[in-house]
Design a protein that fits this description.
- The complex is a heterodimer of chains A (385) and B (82).
- Chain A is built from 13 helices and twelve strands.
- Chain A is an alpha+beta fold.
- In chain A, the strands form three sheets. Chain A has a five-stranded mixed sheet. Chain A has a four-stranded antiparallel sheet with strand order 9-12-10-11, with helices on one face.
- The longest helix of chain A is centred in the middle third of the chain and has 21 residues, at 245-265.
- The two termini of chain A are 21 Å apart.
- Chain B has one domain (2-80).
- The chains are: A alpha+beta (385), B mainly beta (82).
- The interface between A and B is medium-sized, with 20 and 15 residues.
Chain lengths: 385, 82
């Protein structure tokens, strides 16, 4: 059987465990004071309508007694890493995100296994999780959301969830839900009983796959090896808006450093560079550049994004900047041409791995903007995968 | 929480693979730890920092042990104290 383990209001639960004075109170975890959005709301806060994605101001309007806690992503990463280590003892583990995992337990008793790891997690961290059990990952993930918090839900057959809306199925997004509704497909019952060509015309090959998975005719296996990244990126929301060229460039260089470091760590290089700009009022746009020669080097990435940002007129102060490199390939080509440069970066990266990312930097970013790094949805604990 | 970042002296019990702070001295006061409510490990390069959320006399403290330098810091303190 396959289990989907979903930590309950993960960040907020950790804050309530770390600070027992917050227990039972409506808590929201936010990136930084006032300006940022809520990343997790505790179940007490959800009762007031406070949701992930709202701004702190919106949350406080709905719940004036809301306790806003500044996110401590290192604490959440560390907790996630330990939880994944616990889960890994019970079967084949696929880390899906910082607070979700799939577990293939073979023929073991799902209830006994769940009771056992729930206890371990509760004893160690004083937090809970909800578990869905099914023969495939799609149904297991659906099941974990049906009884929250601290739930346990088994789906033996797709008929057990016939009345659940298709919007609850992982892989069916809002736009697809609307398209399916137009042809009368609203529930899982409608989906699995629809003619296959209708599903295919709306969702393509992914829809066909989902159709057969839900019907139990093909299995989606737990995959302990993470997929190779399709892109590598970093972004920063600033405590105060940036407007001056020098500080924007400094922030861009800092981002380029992080992206380049991660590219080299993954032994990758990329041809497509995107720059994401978000103005003070949340207006967001991106600028793209593509080049034949792939990049892995912060100076080159910086020079590209600097050109990109110089190509437009910045009309408002900036609250967020991001850089992403995609169209990735194994880092071979550049090394053949720039052996010395590559060796130099290897030394810089070694220092960073030994002493931390901020241990060495370029003169341009001597006074770093120390950023409270959010967790990307693609984050995986290094030791697990 | 209010940022403090003061170096502190800490009495510690080592055992069962754990490091448990028992009391610490801060600004001439001896603060007895009643409960360790949360602990986590942070890695920055190869440096390891052990973080503790602790409770004493109705107040939450966040202390850190820098394992490499063998030093303790009081990182943050509940808003109600200062």
């Amino acid at each position: 059987m396959i289990l989907h383990v979903d930590m309950d209001a993960f960040f907020a639960s950790i804050e309530q465990a770390a600070n027992p004075f917050l227990k039972g109170l409506p808590v929201a975890v936010a990136g930084a004071k006032k300006r940022s959005v809520i990343t997790t709301a505790s179940y007490e806060a959800r009762k007031y309508g406070v949701k992930t994605g709202m701004t702190v101001v919106e949350g406080l309007k709905l719940c004036p007694v809301l306790k806003v806690v500044i996110a401590d992503f290192k604490k959440y990463e560390a907790t996630s890493r330990e939880i994944m280590e616990i889960l890994g003892k019970y079967g084949l583990l696929e880390v899906y995100s910082v607070d979700e995992a799939f577990l293939d337990i073979g023929l073991a008793d799902p209830e006994k296994v769940t009771i056992s790891f729930k206890k371990e997690i509760k004893d160690r961290f004083d937090i809970t999780c909800s578990v869905g059990v099914a023969k495939n990952k799609v149904l297991a993930k659906l099941a974990s959301g049906l009884e929250k918090p601290d739930g346990f839900f088994v789906v033996n057959d797709v008929k057990d969830v016939y009345d659940v809306p298709v919007s609850e199925v992982c892989g069916i997004g809002k736009k697809t839900v609307r398209k399916l509704a137009l042809v009368g497909i609203v529930t899982i019952r409608d989906f699995v009983n629809a003619p296959l060509h209708v599903i295919k015309s709306i969702m393509g090959i992914n829809g066909v796959r989902l159709f057969y998975i839900l019907k139990g005719e093909i299995k989606d296996y737990v995959n302990p090896v993470p997929d190779k990244p399709k892109s590598i990126g970093n972004s920063m929301t600033f405590d105060r808006d940036l407007f001056h060229k020098a500080e924007i460039e400094k922030a861009l260089f800092q981002l380029a450093e992080k992206v380049a470091f991660r590219l080299r760590k993954e032994m990758l290089e990329g041809r497509h560079i995107s720059l994401i700009v978000r103005y003070k009022d949340f207006e967001t746009f991106s600028l793209q550049y593509r080049q034949e020669m792939p990049v892995y080097d912060e100076k080159e990435i910086f020079s590209i994004v600097k050109k990109l940002i110089s190509s437009i007129e910045l009309v408002k102060p900036i609250r967020l900047l991001g850089i992403s490199v995609s169209d990735l390939s194994p880092a071979i080509q550049q090394r053949l041409f720039d052996r010395n440069l590559y060796e130099r970066y290897k030394v810089i990266d070694k220092i960073r791995e030994r002493w931390g990312f901020n241990a060495i930097t370029w003169g341009i970013v001597k006074d770093k903007y120390l950023h409270n790094k959010p967790i990307s949805p693609a984050w995986r604990p290094e030791k697990i995968c | 929480m209010l940022e403090v970042n003061d170096k502190i002296r800490v009495a510690t019990i080592f055992g069962n693979g754990k490091v448990d702070p028992v009391w610490f001295e801060w600004k001439g006061r001896k603060i007895r730890i009643e409960k360790i409510s949360y602990r986590w490990k942070e890695k920055e390069g190869s440096c390891v920092y052990m973080h503790y959320s602790i409770i004493s006399n109705g107040t939450l403290y966040h202390i850190i042990w820098d394992r490499e330098r063998m030093e303790w810091y009081l990182k943050e303190i509940g808003d109600d104290v200062l």
